[in-house]
Amino acid sequence: MATVEQHHQQTRILVQAAAAVCEDKKGEDTRILELDPIDAGLSDFFLVTSASNDRQAIAIADEIEHKLKKEFGVMPNSVEGRRHGEWILLDYVDFVVHVFLAERRAFYDIERLRKSARPLTPAEFDAELKAALAKKTVAARKKATVKAKPAAAKAKKAVIKAAPKAKKAVKAAPVKAKATKPVAKKAAVKKVAAKKATKVTAKTKKK
User: Fold this and answer.
1) Which residues contact 9 (CB under 8 A, 6 or more apart)?
2) Which of 7, 82, 151, 166 lies most in the core, judged by the most C-beta atoms within 10 Å?
């Protein structure tokens, strides 16, 4: 189950993707408003951009909807104003996209109405998101390292514990080898003695 922090980060990724569409489609003065939690209600961000005509406004809104659906499987909760194209609103619950005609944006002045919000350009927002993701990666690596240390220590202990047994086995091997040498020597002596006895017996018979 995703934590609040993970959910918030996922929302940031979606906002970033939508902002990238605004930039690609030549939206003007694109801004991301990070809303004050007390004043925000259900949404965390407003993405605001301007279009020079209604056709451009509709094209921007359509491309945002298409991209978020295709790449993230996310659909807006509701869409308003697409028919006229003067102010198109895409409500994704955790963030809301506002695509205005320039004069309509100046008239409604959302940025002024949301004075407590923190305004960010797409570049600033992107830099913050990258920094947050990098921090998360470092934390995950540290966690993995901490988990790996006990396992390495356990393996080291096992090696140390096994070392005396291996040492004893190495020491025992030459002893066994030495023990076999006298036995082999005795056998050789017996063999020579038997040959001599045979020769003596043979000579005695000849006589």
Assistant:
1) 129, 132, 133, 136
2) 82
> CA 200 to CA 127: how far, in whole Å?
106
Point out which residues pair with 50 in neighbouring strands: 28, 100
Alpha-carbon gap, residue 23 to 72, rounded angstroms: 19
Rounded alpha-carbon distances, angstroms, from residue 133 to 7, 37, 39, 122, 204: 13, 22, 27, 16, 105
DSSP string, 45-79: EEEEEEESSHHHHHHHHHHHHHHHHHHH----SEE
Mean pLDDT (whole number) for 11-31 = 97
Token pair listed for 72: 């993230």
For residue 115, the model assigns a pLDDT of: 84
Counts of helices then strands in the chain (DSSP H, E): 6, 6
Query: What are the structural domain ranges in the chain?
Result: 4-120
Residue type at position 116 = S
Report helix, strand or coil for 93.
coil
Between 143 and 83, whose confidence is greater?
83
Fold topology of 4-120: Beta Polymerase; domain 2 (3.30.460)
Which range among 39-48, 64-73, 114-123, 189-198 shows the weakest confidence by mean pLDDT?
189-198
